[in-house]
Specification:
The chain folds into two domains: 22-87 and 186-202, Pseudouridine synthase I, catalytic domain, N-terminal subdomain (Alpha-Beta Plaits, 2-Layer Sandwich); 90-182, 2-Layer Sandwich (Alpha-Beta Plaits), CATH 3.30.70. It is built from four helices and eleven strands, in the order αβββαβαββββαβββ. It has helices spanning 3-7, 76-83, 103-111, 162-169; strands at residues 25-30, 57-58, 67-73, 91-98, 114-115, 118-119, 124-128, 148-155, 174-182, 185-186, 195-197. Strands 1, 2, 3, 4, 7, 8, 9, 10 and 11 form a nine-stranded mixed beta sheet that branches. Strand 5 (114-115) and strand 6 form a beta hairpin. The longest helix is centred in the middle third of the chain and has 9 residues, at 103-111. The chain starts with a helix and ends in a 5-residue tail after the last strand.
Length: 202
């Protein structure tokens, strides 16, 4: 390397990736047992089996054994605004748990619980009546001797399996998990596997 290059090393400019000419945002009701990705070398069900729109990718994650609202976009900056916890976008879930939650357990969920990767932010948690939601395929396995209860839980983070770990931490194992809302977008009228494109005014 020449002495000139060492003394006058050119600066490297980071070029921000341009947004697509037309930003697209899709809403999918992700079925149970579907991976939140478009390919899988083990032959498992993926988003490709339901969404045939090129160039869109998930904005955040939804576990294979969870169901409900998943947003997809071709705009990386929009994906970040939806998925990044820094933007504090609420995510609301309907959660079927094993047992009957006490007021203390609900309070602990609201205050935040300590997980292996640190304490969670405060959440909103309340009991709800059993919702009119599509049947899961395959059905949830229940223990006949133990009752189940539905909660509505709203969080602003998106850690791996966070809701399941939160309910387990307070003694309420999750049996079924359905995401119903992300920020202003609510799953409404879509059956599992169905999707529709959103206007940015929606």
């Amino acid at each position: 390397m020449s002495s000139y290059y060492r003394l006058h090393k050119p600066s490297v400019r980071r070029v921000r990736q341009a947004s697509p000419d037309k930003s697209r945002l899709l809403m999918l009701n992700k079925p149970f047992d579907v991976l939140t990705q478009f390919s899988d070398d083990q032959g498992r069900a993926t988003l490709k089996d339901f969404v045939d729109v090129p160039g869109v990718y998930p904005a955040g994650r939804l576990d294979r054994d969870s169901e409900g609202l998943l947003l997809l976009s071709n705009d990386g900056r929009l994906q970040a605004r939806i998925a990044d916890p820094r933007y504090k976008m609420d995510k609301t879930y309907w959660v079927q748990v094993e047992g009957e939650p006490s007021s203390d357990q609900l309070q602990r969920l609201c205050q935040g619980v300590v997980l292996k990767d640190g304490p969670t932010l405060p959440a909103q948690a309340r009991l709800i009546d059993e919702p009119s939601v599509w049947p899961r395929n395959p059905p949830v396995r229940f223990r006949k001797s133990i009752p189940t209860t539905w909660l509505e839980l709203t969080i602003q983070e998106g850690r791996n399996r966070q809701v399941r770990r939160m309910t387990a931490a307070v003694g309420l194992p999750t049996l079924r998990l359905v995401r119903m809302r992300i920020g202003p977008w609510e799953l409404d009228g879509l059956l599992p596997g169905q999707w529709r494109e959103l206007d940015f005014d929606d």
